[in-house]
Design goal:
Elements (H helix, E strand, L loop, with lengths): L2 H13 L7 E4 L12 E4 L3 E7 L8 H11 L2 E7 H10 L5 E8 L2 E8 L9 H4 L5 H10 L10 H11 L2 H14 L4
Parallel strand pairs: 3-4, 4-5
Antiparallel strand pairs: 1-2, 2-3, 5-6
């Protein structure tokens, strides 16, 4: 099974869950372009899904997961039986792991462990998901003034001091729900 096959099946599976995501985004750039998770599911919180198919190198998750866990409230690796043993060794316990298996020529998903609270969420890193105009809107929503020539980093600093972790994740989710992408 490759990434593309798993991705399509995963999107369909997530949409059919008892509580489906409000929106699923593909490969949104995060951490100033340093990472790009396969899927971001927007619930009442942000949830990153990274896919590692049979042909992928599971070791790459080590470089990626630092960015993901800094940016999202929950994180889950979706992988195959081939990579499961290694994934269990590489990922912290709060990461979810789902294994993709083929049953009757259909890809099915089984939880190995569900994701839990991510203790490494960072407001400054999570803010980088937002476009500059979205950052400005967050500040305007709280009546926080900023200069028109403020840089993204200036805006991130203001957001960091003005929003709680919970408020920021909620606001990022709302921004992503309203984002128009072609």
């Amino acid at each position: 099974m490759n990434d593309a096959e798993i991705r399509l099946a995963l999107i369909n599976w997530l949409k059919q869950k008892k509580i489906p995501p409000q929106k699923i985004l593909n490969e949104i750039t995060i951490s100033d372009g340093l990472a790009r998770p396969d899927l971001i599911a927007i619930y009442s919180y942000s949830h990153c899904y990274e896919i590692k198919g049979d042909n992928d190198q599971i070791q790459r998750i080590v470089k990626q997961f630092i960015h993901y866990q800094s940016s999202f409230k929950k994180n889950t690796l979706v992988t195959t039986q081939k990579h499961l043993k290694k994934a269990l060794k590489l990922l912290p316990d709060f990461w979810g792991i789902i294994v993709a298996i083929i049953e009757n020529e259909t890809i099915k998903f089984k939880y190995v462990r569900k994701s839990s609270h991510n203790p490494f969420y960072r407001k400054d890193v999570a803010s980088k998901i937002l476009w500059k105009t979205e950052m400005q809107q967050l500040l305007e929503n709280k009546d926080i003034s900023f200069r028109s020539n403020s840089t993204r980093n200036d805006l991130i600093d203001l957001i960091n001091t003005s929003y709680t972790s919970y408020e920021l994740d909620q606001s990022i989710c709302l921004s992503l729900l309203n984002r128009k992408v072609s």
